Sequence to fold (489 residues):
Amino acid sequence: MKKLLTCFTLLCSLFVINSFSQDKPEWNTIFAKINQEVLSNSKAYSSLKQATETIGHRLTGSANGKKAEEYAYNLLKSYGYTNLRYQPFEVESWSRGSLAVTIGPDAKNLQTIKSVSLAHSPVKVDLNLEVVDMGNGLEEDYLSNPGKVKDKIALVYLGVLPGSKEGTKSLHRSEKTAIAIKYGAKGIIVINTAPRGILLTGTASVTGKLIPIPAVCVGKEDGMQLKEKLGMGKLYSHIAMTNFSGLIKARNVVATIKGKMLSNEKIVVGGHLDSWDLATGAIDNGIGSFSVLDMARTFKVLNLQPERTVEFVMFMGEEEGLLGSKAYVAAAVKDKSINQLRYMLNYDMTNDPKGYATTAEESKELFQAIGSIAHSLDTAFKNQFRSGAGLHSDHEPFMLRGVPTGGGTGGGLPRNVLDCYHADCDVFTLVDEKGMKNTVRFSSMLLYGIADATEIKAKHFTDEETRNFLLKNNLKEPLQIAGEWRWKE
Ligand SMILES: [Zn+2]
Fold:
């Protein structure tokens, strides 16, 4: 009986999958061509290598950032894109200046500690204050003693400390900084979670604007030692920093393939091209953005033209607060093209995906059908499916406007690579060429399938539906902290 049942369910799932690919039998051929083209001629790895060697980091608003925008534009042009444009936007940009942090039992016994500024720290700071241990830096760490950090410097762990209460959920460094400010801290020292003294940077501002207090990151080992010392006595710190902050122009780069019968409907696929300046942003987000550039190359070289219009977008300003994707969405809301947007696929640090992810559970059938063809071409692709919603990358502004978003899932980056996130070790030698090729070929198949499908079940949410969706995914609090929760209650 049980055996009969399993055969029956297997038959059903094969029927569902085949019924979709039956709907578009030509997908089998097209996906096989994509597969072959990428395996033989992918330029993702080599173009990232060249950009890394000739440009270096790609910090938004810097000379390097401008070169990176031009590099992407010229690359897409060399692939044959004529429907190609810059999308300029103006942002408050931040870049680091000097930093000196010393710590000790009193003003006379201060020792230098290796540190790096977190973005959007003030332009000029020179303060000497007591340091207090605020544990994980979550609301509950302050509620137990609200006055503890007032007019002092908070020492906070970036993640969740070992031994913390079961189920403790961390918050983004910008959210932890916002909480420290709320309780009156005059500075924050964030202890990195990565070992070997690795220093991380990144924004400490939930709004993308300057914050009123200095925020710095110290290495894990140094930070844990400070916690120990604070267990035995008081510590004081002198933080002296200078930074640049001012309005700058940056540009997203947008290349378009007009659709056939459903050309008024649009699928956006993108990744942020910008990076931090401590290294060359090989993993964040060289692998994602240059995979998207190679998806664009693949579509052009195979002359693919699905039913719907496809836009390949290189976003800038992601690290400074999703500034490029916010500018893109703001423009789309203004000219109402947001209503044409059927899906947004985002590739941020995606490597070697084993399946597809989405915010729209109702896309499962379509994604699984697309994935089953990919799996038939290479069983290394497991056709995993994940639905859910998160924040802090370029899909966020689209999701907040009711657009279904998606991308890859199930891939991964080894620990030593993840430890270099936003750090001075995020360099090209970390890049996995085969992983990039897999990102390009399996994501190109997803993109083509969504853009060419007879029907996309995932709805473009109304304002009310978007609110309910975000509530269901527990995103109200982090969005409120970020000032992005636009609903009254
Ligand atoms: Zn990133």
